[in-house]
């Protein structure tokens, strides 16, 4: 009898605690506003001050509508419900991480983009995008400061028998002071994305403009090109051969940029960085061709061990980062091991984010002031 009473008390306490926890869950605030990434004049999708997202899809004949969030819809789905007017609406079950997110809509099994949102290249297709306002979004905000230029270039590639595309960021003042030359950061996207990602989703140009205006960095050029990654299907990335892209980058793109832009064309003034699979490319290329770059950065893209770079005598910086929802201990421990071995190594962990662009925006913001310091 005593055992039964004790069990009953434990169950009662557990039930009471659960009820209290559920009652303490904050209500969803009805202060929703259109996402800043909406198509012109479109009200939905919307976001509120807590980070919830609300969607509205007009599909009166549909039987099921689900919004899938994250690269490739990997964050799960938000089912929408149809109202009497045949309009499907729904709100995410919880707040989303701050920053940019891809998403798409599945209607009766077919995958579509949200007609209310702008599109961004991710998941090896153009996906809808939504922006959850961040507490630190000022560092990539569009401000009344001098702005650099982002231009598309087409460079010849003998190895692929075609002309390839890259985007080049030149800092404010580049075209006024014709006597000044600049270091270059070659900055790579991740799997499923392309050379448009860093300037569009990542807002790299605005991050640079703001850092330069605040006097926090010396200006440098950024180059983005396609990493030839998307021919590999997700899940088979271990079979990726970096050699063709290494040829394009090192033997074709870099000489073209050095010839057509005012760069300082030497190892000491050249950096390579990449997010996710672009980090894997960065690691492979910097290990294969250590004479090309002096600054290495992996953003959610793996780590270096001291034995990896033991012969890299001109290496000036190793930067390793990730989100706090990824594997931060691995990043921190790797940087410590490099420091203990005598290397200039820096780790950074983006608090409250995962494998997503807010992590990589913050990482670039932390990385840029460390580059090209004499």
UniProtKB/TrEMBL annotation:
Entry-linked Pfam families: Esterase (PF00756)
The signal peptide stretch is 1-21
The cross-references to SUPFAM superfamilies, in alphabetical order and at most eight, read: alpha/beta-Hydrolases, E set domains
Q: Per the record's keyword annotation, is Lipoprotein included, yes or no?
A: no
Question: What domain of life is recorded for the organism?
Answer: Bacteria
* Molecular function GO terms recorded: acyltransferase activity, transferring groups other than amino-acyl groups
Which keywords, in A-to-Z order, does the entry hold? Signal
**Stored PANTHER family:** DIACYLGLYCEROL ACYLTRANSFERASE_MYCOLYLTRANSFERASE AG85A, ENTEROCHELIN ESTERASE-RELATED
Protein name per UniProt: Esterase
């Amino acid at each position: 009898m005593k055992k039964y009473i004790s069990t009953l008390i434990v169950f009662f306490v557990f039930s009471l605690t659960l009820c209290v926890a559920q009652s303490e869950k904050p209500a969803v605030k009805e202060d929703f506003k259109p996402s800043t990434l909406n198509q012109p004049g479109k009200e939905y999708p919307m976001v509120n001050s807590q980070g919830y997202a609300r969607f509205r899809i007009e599909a009166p004949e549909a039987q099921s509508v689900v919004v899938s969030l994250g690269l490739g819809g990997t964050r799960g789905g938000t089912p929408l419900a149809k109202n009497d007017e045949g309009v499907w609406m729904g709100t995410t079950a919880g707040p989303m991480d701050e920053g940019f997110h891809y998403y798409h809509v599945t209607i009766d099994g077919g995958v579509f983009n949200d007609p209310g949102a702008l599109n961004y290249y991710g998941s090896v297709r153009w996906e809808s995008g939504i922006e959850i306002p961040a507490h630190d979004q000022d560092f990539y905000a569009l401000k009344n400061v001098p702005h650099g230029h982002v231009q598309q270039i087409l460079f010849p590639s003998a190895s692929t028998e075609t002309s390839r595309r890259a985007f080049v960021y030149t800092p404010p003042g580049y075209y006024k002071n014709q006597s000044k030359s600049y270091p270059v950061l070659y900055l790579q996207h991740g799997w499923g994305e392309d050379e448009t990602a860093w300037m569009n989703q990542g807002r790299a140009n605005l991050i640079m403009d703001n850092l330069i205006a605040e006097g926090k960095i010396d200006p440098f050029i950024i180059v983005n090109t396609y990493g030839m990654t998307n021919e590999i299907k997700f899940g088979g990335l271990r079979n990726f051969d970096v050699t063709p892209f290494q040829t394009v980058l090192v033997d074709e793109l870099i000489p073209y940029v050095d010839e057509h832009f005012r760069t300082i064309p030497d190892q000491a003034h050249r950096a390579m960085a990449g997010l996710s699979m672009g980090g894997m490319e960065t690691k492979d290329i910097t290990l294969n061709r250590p004479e090309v770059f002096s600054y290495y950065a992996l953003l959610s893209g793996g780590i270096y061990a001291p034995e990896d770079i033991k012969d890299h005598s001109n290496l000036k910086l190793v930067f390793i980062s990730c989100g706090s929802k990824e594997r931060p201990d691995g990043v921190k421990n790797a940087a410590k091991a490099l420091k203990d071995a005598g290397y200039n190594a820096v780790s950074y962990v983006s608090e409250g984010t995962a494998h997503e662009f807010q992590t990589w925006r913050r990482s670039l913001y932390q990385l840029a002031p460390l580059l090209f310091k004499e």
